[in-house]
Amino acid sequence: MVLPEKTIERLSKYRRVLITLNYDQKGYIYSHELANLIHITPEQVRRDMMLIGYNGTLRRGYEVNKLIEKINSIIDGNTVQNVALVGIGNLGRAMLNYLKDKNRYLKIIACFDNDQNKIDKMCCGVPCYSINDAGKLIKELNINIAVLTVPTTVAIEVSEILIKSGIKGILNFTTIPLKVPSNVYLEEYDMITSLEKVAYFTQFNK
Hints:
Elements: H1 5-23, E1 28-29, H2 31-38, H3 42-51, E2 62-63, H4 64-75, E3 81-86, H5 90-99, E4 106-113, E5 122-123, E6 126-130, H6 134-140, E7 143-148, H7 155-164, E8 169-172, E9 185-188, H8 191-202
Parallel strand pairs: 3-4, 3-7, 4-6, 7-8, 8-9
Antiparallel strand pairs: 1-2, 5-6
């Protein structure tokens, strides 16, 4: 069964806070405690737990370690997926540094760029290749996912190269909306829109 997008988002958030709790040696957590940590309702937590087939107890709630393991099995599937970061500018480098060790099942193994000063060199411990070689290398290295941090002027062109090369998932950090075929999953994150949203609502916080 394929879970809804919003459920996967919440499961990822649950896991992050649960890992922090685990470090603090907290063995169990109630639905209302977990809900408070990520600012949702306890009812939503319970619905998500029912959807993934995980049950707690009335007396103690959810066992933290076992819930983490359950979420791991759903999100990661115990299979490593190879990731490429495309576009090694300031944003690309920042994203590479942030993402490269965050999840052992998501392994960033390549970068692509068109800058000759970056090609065939290491960037944050990851080899950088020419975007012209993406078609060959994505297949050879079995890369399934691409993080797109290229300039907006080339975002559509580069995304088409990635899709033709066999990429099945794209995380788009450019401000250009992309069109992808049905067999490619697209997640778009527009930081400018997010900042403008924060700025708008900040006006009313007096």
